[in-house]
Amino acid sequence: MVTGYEVDIGALRDAATRAQQSAVQAEGADPAGRLGAVGTAMPGSAAAQRAQSLAAAWRGEQGAWVQAAQGHASGLRSSADGYAGHEAGAARRFGDGR
């Protein structure tokens, strides 16, 4: 029988930091940078046109992923703050003085 649970608030904060760092790194990357070479190597070809479409799709997905990672980081920070607040409130109520 489960009688309680424990949340590692520090681990939540660490995970939030890592998610945010991942978003920053992904935001600075160019996932489609090398696809431009297809157009240079094969101008006017169907492959060159598709490479442009693929580059646009990858960049769009990258932006969506960055936003999702930032949202995840924000949610983790919010959860950590909520748990910390509850812990502090419980400590005050039970005389721990935090």
Kindly describe this structure.
With 98 residues, the protein is mainly α. The chain has a domain at 52-98. The protein contains three helices and no strands. Helix 1 (9-28) runs antiparallel to helix 3 (46-93). The model has no long low-confidence stretch (mean pLDDT 92). InterPro entries: ESAT-6-like_sf. Residues 76-98 are annotated as: Disordered. Residues 89-98 have a biased composition (Basic and acidic residues).
Spell out the key features of this protein.
98 residues, 0% strand, mainly alpha, ESAT-6-like_sf, single chain
The coarse silhouette is rod-shaped
- On the 0-100 scale, what is the average pLDDT? 92
Low-confidence stretches: none
Instruction: Report the portion of residues in β strands.
Output: under 5%
Q: Roughly how much helix do the residues carry, as a percent range?
A: over 70%
Main β-sheet: number of strands, strand sense, barrel status?
none
How many DSSP E strands? 0
Q: Give the CA-CA distance, first to last residue.
A: 30 Å
Structural class: mainly alpha
Q: How many helix segments? A: 3
Order of helices and strands: HHH
Radius of gyration equals: 23 Å
